Amino acid sequence: MNRMLKNCLSWVLVFISGVAFMWLIQLDSIPLAQLAQQQRGGGGGADYEFINPLLECEVGGDLVEFKELKSFKNKVVALTEKLIKVGDANHISIYFRDLNNGPWFGINEREVYAPGSLLKVPLMITAFRQEELTPGFLNKSVAYEKPLKLPKEYHQDIKPRISLETGKSYSIEELVRRAIVYSDNNAVTMASKELNPALFNKVHNDFGVVFPDEKTPENYITIKNYASFFRVLFNSSYLGRYSSEKALKILSEVDFQDALAAGVPRNIKIAHKFGERGVDKDKQIHDCGIIYYPGHPYLLCVMNRGSNITILTQNIAKISKLIYQEIDKQSK
């Protein structure tokens, strides 16, 4: 059995076996020369705009000649080193993956950070999974009677543009949407109280991410582990297609446009989530998401820390712009 056929069969086995899920989300780069034609369904079609589930591999007919991206990691490394050298950041981590064919690269991908609002994505995944298990869960109404007293770790330098109104009731789905789109900590606190704790914990464990508690250190998440949330939403390999599509659509409506989104043209769709830590002098801001370059979507996550949130945000925009320009140059 040749290499291409073996690889193709391995993809099929992954997608029909729930047992293989952890292997899937941790899968490293596959050389393009070993890839058979991948048949995907949904992405860009009438029914699905944001997901692109892998359905099958075509091994009996002609193979598609994938255009392999020339490495541009050295340019990204050079920019990263420059930003650190001039004092714009103390640490920068980057994770890039071509979502068509799988090649990826990481820069300082094992560095740990405080995730902040990035954890609102697993909260949304848990809520949508609970809806799949218990239809009607997302329609449950919850009253917002008064502003919540939140711990100092919930401090936000980037404030929600739209907040919950006291005296009103919101469905769990709307709370989840506001937690993602406006990064509203009151909404996420209310929604999390309605989730099944065991299911919430399981989602974190399934992705190899620590379920935070009072004993969890401040910096504990790596960029590569976090990127898994976006990969499985794009592939619709954890939630069903309808839920995965809805999750990515909500992520495409995120109000914060100063980091990843600032590095790509306005007409390019992007589904992403940012997170920040603004306590004391150790500032952190991260942005992770899918950039839907036409015919060549890619996953990009940037995490960095330093002393100035505004400068750290600009770092992400600069890195995003460089990578977009490289993709654009090679795709023409």
Report the radius of gyration as a whole number of Å.
20 Å
CATH architecture of the largest domain: 3-Layer(aba) Sandwich
Sheet with most strands: 5 strands, antiparallel
- Approximately how much helix is present in the residues? 25-40%
Q: Which residue ranges are poorly predicted, with pLDDT under 50 across at least 5 consecutive positions?
A: 1-40, 55-66
Q: How many domains in all?
A: 2
CATH topology of the largest domain: Beta-lactamase
Total E-strand runs: 11
Please tally the helical runs, counting DSSP H or I stretches of 4 or more residues.
10
Averaging pLDDT over every residue, what do you get? Answer: 84
CATH top level of the largest domain is Alpha Beta
Beta content: 15-25%
Give me the CATH superfamily of the largest domain: DD-peptidase/beta-lactamase superfamily
- The strands making up the biggest β-sheet line up spatially as 4-3-11-10-9
State the separation between the terminal residues, measured CA to CA. Answer: 35 Å
Describe the 3D structure.
With 332 residues, the chain is of the alpha+beta class. The protein folds into two domains: 56 residues, no CATH class; 184 residues, 3-Layer(aba) Sandwich (Beta-lactamase). The protein contains ten helices and eleven strands. It has a five-stranded antiparallel β-sheet with strand order 4-3-11-10-9, with helices on both faces. Strands 1-2 form a two-stranded antiparallel ribbon. β10 and β11 form a beta hairpin. α4 runs antiparallel to α5. The longest helix is centred in the last third of the chain and has 23 residues. It is globular, with a radius of gyration of 20 Å. The N terminus is likely disordered.
